[in-house]
Amino acid sequence: MAMENHTTVQEFIFAGFTESSDLQLPLFAFFLIIYIITLTGNIGMILLIRINSQLHTPMYFFLSNLSFVDFCYSTVVTPKMLMDLVIKKNAISLTGCAVQMWFFGLFLATECFLLAAMAYDRYMSISKPLLYTVIMSRRVCVQLVVTPYLVGVLNATTHTTLTFQLSFCNHHRINHFFCDIPAVISLACSDTQLNNMVLLGLSCTFGIVSTSIIIVSYIYILTAILRIRSSGGRHKAFSTCSTHLTVVTIFYGTLFFTYVRPTSSSSTQEDKMVSMLYTVMIPMLNPLIYSLRNKEVKDAVRRVLRGKSLL
Q1: Which of 128, 158, 197, 291 has its CA 20 to 30 Å from the CA of residue 301?
Q2: Of all residues in the chain, what percent are helix, strand and coil, respectively (each to 5)?
């Protein structure tokens, strides 16, 4: 009997957003449109920055990497979710779930620290404009991009290793639309105290470190802006940061709501909706926000549409 009760799970079944067959087709169409916009926006942003020599600056180097990360972690989740909306059995193998969790953990943590690196870049640009190109050399920019990926690897490897050392017995129905860490951990029939402690600990640590970098950077930025005498100069300096602040607020707000709340206070439906925001909606919104609120990007897009040279 003990052997039967602890049968190894070979696959998981996603509960998805809804069990209503009437809603599945409209949801499929809705998320497919969003995913197409996400791919077009992020790949378009990467190509625009690559072919436009005027955008070959540290700020746009970081932005192109942000677009790459958004494209990747949306792709980790959305295609599988779309497939599950049109087939009856929303299954994923144990290995497939582990792979999805690892890549999602990688790109999620990478984005957190990439946004922090972008805040530091804005601080250097506004506080030390004369030394900006010297300080933010190509080597420094590459280091500031590689470091978030290393943090992402640490985050992904830690959570995936600990999660898939658990016993899942006969529990294989994930009440979610992807292999999110808390949702998979909740299925375990073995002790999950260590997993929950590590999840909260790493989430808080990464969150505090990355937000601290952002907050300190913006304190220095605000101080530098207030020293500018002309109102036009202050407006121009602040406008270069407003898009980044918008992206940071939306991204970190949803993450803290999901991963830093006590488990007892969470609602499954709330978790799904918030997860949908940062896995599906935010990767679509980021390139749109930077396109609509950034004059240099808008000018580059206009020049492409008019067929003018970007060199």
Answers
A1: 128
A2: 75, 5, 20
Residues 211-251: tens digit of each pLDDT: 999 999 999 988 888 887 777 777 777 777 888 888 888 88
Tokens of 152: 């992402």
Two tokens, residue 150:
């290393």
Amino acid at 286: N
CA 253 to CA 209: how far, in whole Å?
15
User: Could you tell me the two tokens for 251?
Assistant: 């991204």
SS3 state at 102: helix
Residue 205 contacts residue 43 (beta carbons within 8 Å): no
Select from 141, 115, 121, 127 the least CA-distant residue to 289.
115
The residue to which tokens 């897009």 are assigned: 301
In this prediction, residue 179 carries a pLDDT of 92
Distance, CA of 102 to CA of 108 (rounded, Å): 10
Report the distance separating Cα 127 and Cα 216, nearest Å: 13
Residue type (1 letter), 135: I
Q: Measured at the alpha carbon of residue 150, what is the angle toward residues 164 and 105, in degrees to the nearest 5? A: 40
For 87, counting Cβ atoms within 10 Å of its Cβ (0-12 exposed, 13-18 middle, 19+ buried), the class is exposed
Residue with tokens 């206009």: 302
Cα–Cα distance between 177 and 81 in angstroms, integer? 6
Task: Identify which has the larger pLDDT, 286 or 72.
Answer: 72
pLDDT, averaged across the chain: 85
